[in-house]
Specification:
CATH class of the largest domain: Mainly Alpha
CATH topology of the largest domain: Isoleucyl-tRNA Synthetase, Domain 1
Helix content: 25-40%
Strand content: 15-25%
Distance between the termini: 55 Å
Structural class: alpha+beta
Radius of gyration: 29 Å
Number of domains: 4
């Protein structure tokens, strides 16, 4: 999208190759870590290329240039006395005779009780804790209970930067409207207080600590991996024979740095990386820029569950692309992006997006226009004649849509942008139908020519503004149009002059048959293809259900809860009493929209504290396929306080 706007932009990414999972895999396969990372780097790079990811460079953190970059930062901090050396207690496997990194230890989370938590972090609840707090620890190397043994490490004083980081996040949010889910992660860390973080660990695999008396220690991956964006840009500069080019981006105040990541990496890009760069800038003359925005997404699940290679739940991109072309998947993901909450990939939805939207709406509009142009205008763009109101309205829509979509993309609302663009394709189909070119060609060829001219202009605009989403298909469309892209702001103008010769049309999207989808679902062991994954729950006795007291209540007050994007504080009237209820429906309802609704309340729940507010019940709601919550309502004839039976 930015390239279509003529922006000088670098899109960098790379393989993070020093994490402990690498050594675990190497140990299991009895091979060297280098063999593991070489294999996965090539797999990842191949997958990205086939999927159409247009990185300027896909780098890796094992290259010498990255080692040099990370060691330069570490040495600078060490020499200037910024790092604190501390003796700590770490898990040690006496049988394997080695200190155990976090992922080599599993136990019970002291916060939520999750039984597969790592030694210092729980992926279930996100809690961070000291290894000594982990309950029932076990070594993944030997299966033995590890002991805590003293070791020495260097620490980065993250807490010293808390005030500046809070000010930085607040300023960036004010100026660039950060996503609420990202802000919630930041606020959570700030509320708990930032603490010193170890920048070294006891491990053989990784970037060696560049100081004396540091044998057997490497730079912690959390510290060096984020520096990979800098080293990747350096690598690209060297490949372009412009070794200092990277400075024009990373050390130029005019550069905008945007980090597109998943929610599990928010803290590293909003707190830790900025703190590292602040520390460098405080002590060196060459200053780095900080992230302007971190529009992180939530997680994408698969058919109602988390992706899991070990359980065979999901599909690999390369395997997917052996069966289907990339564009239908790119479109499905863009239209269902987990921008503010976790979403799911469902095979049936994928089929529907391809068949009902790409094939029936976009593909059908393009195909029928080209077939008509071939049959009646010799594959030439016909003259545009006198415009009727329907023509002027369509031309206005062609001009407006790129700007509407651009505004949404600039605010990282990809789902809404895709919907806006597809609405233009829908409008194109409607315009074609309402204009009835198959009828007017018989009596008024000039009027028919105007219709086809405008349809072709619509196709040109669609090809440009959809190219960031479905690039392979749009490349084919431009070939059919015998034309090239312009810049985004001009793609809604007249880009195909009368008399311009078109190329032969081709089918852009092939419909996916039910049998093909069922075959994929059956690989998962799912017996039915449903829009939603059915969740089986154990049966309960009637006596248990009868304990739940459901009553009719009316919402008489509603307001948002500060510091929460999901919760609303409601005041409800049960007829003989009034209560306060906290409900997680803020993303589906404006507070004022709930006033006067008669809802169903679980009236005998134990009160709970949520964000400092007491909730005296729970309202019933149902979630639709789009993730919108709809509260269950009744009419005004039902008396307040009536029990649902």
């Amino acid at each position: 999208y930015k390239r279509l706007n003529g922006v000088d932009i670098l899109y960098v990414c790379g393989s993070d190759e020093h994490g402990v999972p690498i050594t675990i895999t190497a140990d299991k396969e009895k091979i060297k870590p280098q063999e593991v990372i070489d294999r996965f780097h090539n797999i990842n790079k191949d997958a990205f290329e086939k999927f159409g990811m247009s990185f300027d460079i896909y780098s890796r953190t094992s290259i010498p240039l990255h080692h040099e970059t990370a060691q330069t930062f570490f040495k600078s901090f060490h020499e200037k006395g910024l790092l604190n050396e501390k003796k700590t207690m770490q898990f040690y496997d006496e049988k394997a005779k080695m200190f155990l990194p976090d992922r080599y230890v599993e136990g019970t989370c002291p916060n939520c009780g999750y039984e597969e938590a790592r030694s210092d972090e729980c992926e279930n609840c996100g809690a961070l804790y000291d290894p000594s707090e982990l309950k029932n620890p076990k070594s993944k190397i030997s299966g033995e209970t590890p002991v805590l043994k003293e070791t020495s490490h260097w620490y980065f004083p993250l807490g010293n930067y808390q005030q500046r980081l809070e000010e930085y996040v607040s300023l960036m949010d004010k100026e660039h409207n950060w996503k609420e889910n990202v802000l919630q992660y930041c606020r959570g860390w700030f509320k708990d207080g930032l603490k010193d973080r170890a920048v070294t660990r006891d491990l053989d695999w990784g970037i060696k600590v560049p100081v004396d008396n540091a044998d057997g220690k490497v730079i912690y991956v959390w510290f060096e991996a984020v520096l990979g964006y800098i080293s990747a840009t350096k690598e690209l500069s060297q490949k372009l024979n412009k070794p200092d080019l990277w400075k024009d981006y990373w050390q130029n105040e005019g550069t905008r740095y945007i980090a597109f990541i998943g929610k599990d990496n928010v803290v590293f890009h909003t707190i830790i990386f900025p703190a590292i760069l602040m520390a460098w800038n405080d002590n060196n003359s060459d200053k780095y820029i900080l992230p302007e925005n971190v529009p992180a997404n939530e997680f994408l699940n698969f058919e109602g569950k988390k992706f899991s290679k070990s359980r065979g739940w999901g599909i690999d991109v390369i395997d997917f692309l052996k069966i289907f072309p990339p564009d239908p998947l790119r479109y499905t993901l863009a239209a269902n992006l987990p921008e503010n909450k976790d979403t799911d990939f469902y095979w049936k939805e994928f089929q529907g997006r391809n068949n009902n939207e790409l094939a029936d709406i976009l593909g059908n509009f393009i195909n029928r226009t080209f077939i008509f142009a071939k049959k009646h205008f010799d594959l030439t763009v016909p003259e545009r004649g006198t415009l009727a109101q329907i023509d002027e309205e369509m031309l206005s829509l062609i001009q407006e849509t790129p700007f509407k979509a651009a505004k949404l993309l600039e605010n990282y609302k990809v789902k809404d942008a895709v919907l806006e663009i597809m609405n233009l394709a829908r409008a194109g189909n409607k315009y074609f139908n309402d204009s009835e070119p198959w009828t007017i060609i018989k009596n008024d060829k000039a009027k028919c020519a105007t219709t086809i001219n405008i349809c072709l202009q619509t196709i040109y605009t669609l090809a440009e503004i959809l190219s960031p989403v479905i690039p392979f298909s749009c490349e084919k469309i431009f070939k059919m149009l015998n034309s090239e892209k312009t810049i985004w702001d001009l793609c809604g103008k007249d880009n195909l002059s009368a008399g311009h010769k078109l190329n032969e049309p081709e089918i852009l999207f092939t419909k996916i048959e039910d049998e093909t989808i069922e075959k994929q679902v059956n690989k998962l062991g799912v017996t039915e293809v449903n829009e939603e994954t059915e969740i089986k729950v154990p049966l309960i006795a009637y006596e248990d259900f009868s304990k739940v007291q459901l009553k009719i209540a009316e919402v008489i007050g509603a307001e948002k809860i500060k510091k929460s994007s999901k919760l609303l504080k409601l005041q409800v009237d049960l007829g003989n009493e009034k209560r306060q209820v906290v409900a997680g429906i803020a993303k589906s309802y404006a507070p004022e929209a709930l006033i006067g609704k008669r809802i169903v309340l679980v009236a005998n729940l134990q009160p709970a504290q949520l964000f400092g507010e007491e909730s005296q019940g729970m309202i019933l709601a149902v979630e639709d396929s789009e993730g919108t919550l709809n509260v269950l309502e009744t009419n005004n004839k039902v008396k307040l306080g009536t029990q649902v039976k």
